[in-house]
Every structure is written in C-alpha cells, then in structure tokens.
Specification:
Elements (H helix, E strand, L loop, with lengths): L12 H6 L6 E4 L2 E4 L6 H18 L5 E4 L3 E3 L9 E2 L3 E4 L5 E2 L2 E3 L4 E5 L5 H15 L3 E6 L4 E8 L2 E8 L3 E3 L7 E3 H4 L3
Parallel strand pairs: 4-8, 9-10
Antiparallel strand pairs: 1-2, 3-6, 4-5, 6-9, 7-8, 10-11, 11-12, 13-14
C-alpha cells in the first residue's frame, strides 16, 4: 500500500483510498494533511458530550449525527481532491451517504480544536466548508470552553461566540439547543 508522505504532491480521493490505514489523513485541495495521532481527553469529552445531545435530539428524526472517522468528500463532483473527517457532522439528506463516506456537504460540522490542527480547522477547513455550502459550522475550543458558530447566510458565514455555559441554538435543526455546561463538563 502507498503512504502519503510526499510534500508538494497533489492527491485525489482515489489516491487517498489506496493509502496505508495506519495514519489518518485529510485532503484539502489535493494536499495531504496528517491528523493528530490521538486527541486529548478534553477533546474526547467534548465530542462525546456534544454528540450525545445531538443524537438524543435527532432520535426518530430524518437527520443523523456522526462522529469521526467518516470521510466527507466535499467536492466529489469537481476534482474530488478534498476529503475531511470532521469530529462531528449532521446529515439530513441520507442520499449523501455512500459506503464509508458522505458525498457532498453535511448540514452541520463541528471541529474540536487541537494544537496540531487548529490552524487547518480555523482557516483551511473554514474556507472549504463555506465553499461547499455547509450550512452550520462550529469550532469548539477545549481550553477557553467556547464555541464559535458560523451560520451560512447569502453565501457568507455569520459568526456568533458562545462562552462555556447556557443554551446554544442549532440553526439547521429547528428546536435543538445544546447545553454548553454539559459539553464542557470537565
């Protein structure tokens, strides 16, 4: 099996699928980015606590919540060179689910910041999620216990910051609110 180690090399989803599975990677515009070998316990707590609330709300509804790893092919119809694995994603159009991936933009994506990947989450992925039409993008910071929510309006993201406690509305899921006190319960 091939590994993704060549700097400057451009890859597609087909290349990505051929790589050795011992390392997790993401592709952004054909460039390979290694994912963190293991997230912190705070990262894992936030993922679990947030997923628990989302999945509970979605029980019996058509939308579904997922946790990484689940490949998201953001531009499968045009180049197929951007594949990400968000920490949490919500998909309301089940026709986007295919085998081991989501083909196209999820309705909501959540990334939990880690020191080694924070820049990618805040800049590279932000741009790709906006371009793909992800309707709601959250960035959660374990250190500051904050969530920045980006809501897609008229082709641009409006952002709102939430700090450590209280209810945060999920705009793509009518009636869903996330209790940040429970998300950052550590």
């Amino acid at each position: 099996m091939q590994t993704a180690a060549d700097k400057g090399q451009r890859y597609t989803y087909a290349d990505y699928c051929a790589w050795d599975g011992s390392q997790r990677w993401e592709l952004i515009d054909g460039a390979a980015y290694a994912m963190s070998p293991g997230p912190s316990w705070k990262h894992q707590m936030i993922v679990g606590n947030l997923y628990f609330q989302l999945a509970g709300f979605l029980q019996g509804k058509p939308c579904m919540a997922f946790v990484a790893p689940l490949d998201v092919r953001l531009n499968a119809e045009d180049g197929d060179d951007t594949v990400v694995q968000p920490d949490i994603l919500v998909i309301c159009d089940r026709s986007k689910l295919s085998g081991t991936c989501c083909v196209g933009a999820p309705d909501m994506v959540v990334e939990i910041l880690s020191p080694s990947t924070a820049s990618n989450d805040m800049f590279l992925k932000y741009s790709k999620y906006l371009q793909a039409g992800v309707r709601e993008y959250w960035i959660a910071d374990p250190e500051t216990k904050t969530v920045r929510a980006f809501i897609l309006k008229d082709g641009k993201y409006d952002s709102v910051d939430y700090f450590g406690s209280g209810a945060v509305p999920v705009h793509v899921l009518d009636g869903c609110e996330i209790d940040l006190t429970k998300v950052f319960d550590f």
